[in-house]
Specification:
The chain has helices spanning 36-52, 100-113, 147-150, and strands at 13-15, 21-25, 30-33, 59-67, 70-79, 85-91, 117-121, 126-130, 139-140. The protein has 152 residues and is α+β, with helices and mostly antiparallel strands. The chain has a single domain, classed as tt1808, chain A (Alpha-Beta Complex). The strands form 2 sheets. Strands 4-5-6-7-8-9 form a 6-stranded mixed β-sheet, sandwiched between helices. A 3-stranded antiparallel β-sheet has the order 1-2-3, covered by helices on one side. The mean pLDDT is 93.
Length: 152
C-alpha cells in the first residue's frame, strides 16, 4: 500500500482463498478487505489513538446512519465519554484529491450529527475544521485536535 503522511504502524494481515488482502481492524475486531481507503482509515485511527490520545473504545468505524431516508456511513465517528459523537472523519484513498466535493460530503453528513469538529484526510493531506457557531461556517485548524481538547 501507498506510504502515507502519518507515522508507521504495524498491522495484522491475511489473504482470503481467492487472494484478497485483508487487514485486521482493532476497533471492529475483525478482518476487513484492504482497499486504498481502508488503508487510510486504519492508519488514521491508529494516529488518533497513539498520537492524539483518542480512546480506541470511543471510536466507531463505518457507522451507519439515515439521512433523508438514505443509508449513509460515517468513516470514523469519535464519541465523548457519555457516548455522544463529538468528531466526524471522512477518509479518502490517497489518490483522491481533497476538494470542495469532499468537504461538501462531510458537511452534509454533519448536518445529521451537528458536531463541532470535522476532519478530512486522504492519508497524505489532513484537514481539521471547527464550527464555532450555529451557521455552516467552518474554520480550519492548524492540526488535528487532541482528544482532551474536544472535551467540553
Amino acid at each position: 500500500m501507498k506510504e502515507l503522511n502519518l507515522p508507521s504502524y504495524s498491522f495484522k494481515y491475511k489473504k482470503t482463498d481467492d487472494g484478497k488482502q485483508l487487514i485486521f481492524d482493532t476497533v471492529r475486531r475483525k478482518y476487513i478487505t484492504l482497499t486504498p481507503e481502508e488503508w487510510v482509515r486504519q492508519n488514521f485511527v491508529q494516529y488518533l489513538v497513539h498520537h492524539k490520545g483518542y480512546p480506541g473504545g470511543l471510536i466507531g468505524i463505518e457507522v451507519t446512519f439515515k439521512m433523508n431516508s438514505l443509508t449513509r456511513r460515517a468513516d470514523i465517528l469519535v464519541y465523548n465519554r457519555v457516548g455522544n459523537p463529538i468528531l466526524i472523519v471522512e477518509c479518502k484513498a490517497p489518490n483522491i484529491k481533497i476538494d470542495n466535493s469532499v468537504f461538501d460530503q462531510i458537511v452534509a453528513y454533519n448536518r445529521k450529527f451537528r458536531l463541532k469538529y470535522i476532519v478530512v484526510t486522504n492519508g497524505i493531506k489532513h484537514y481539521a475544521c471547527v464550527n464555532e457557531g450555529e451557521g455552516g461556517n467552518y474554520d480550519f485548524l492548524k492540526s488535528i485536535p487532541e482528544y482532551k481538547s474536544l472535551q467540553i
